[in-house]
Design goal:
alpha+beta; 2 helices
Length: 83
């Protein structure tokens, strides 16, 4: 696995929920962070991986990386934007 060139501040696992709760849980986790901190989101293939990255961008956050784990799950790394 390649090293990350940033430090993850917090993680959230949303593999046990379905849309739109996936984004709600991600948004709540981001609200807990300070601007510039990084959230790692563990999510499933399908609707979550299609919708959550787009939704966090729409909220003003920056998607740093979306990594396919090869098992139907992904790791999404998001830098919190300004409130």
């Amino acid at each position: 696995m390649a090293e990350l060139d940033f430090k993850v501040t917090d993680t959230v696992d949303i593999t046990d929920v379905v849309c739109p709760v996936t984004f709600v849980k991600t948004k709540v986790a981001l609200e807990e962070l300070e601007e510039g901190e990084i959230l790692q989101v563990h999510l499933n293939d399908g609707e979550p991986v299609q919708n959550v990255p787009r939704s966090v961008k729409d909220e003003g956050h920056k998607v740093l990386r979306l990594k396919d784990n090869g098992d139907g799950t992904y790791e999404l790394y998001v830098r919190k934007g300004a409130d």
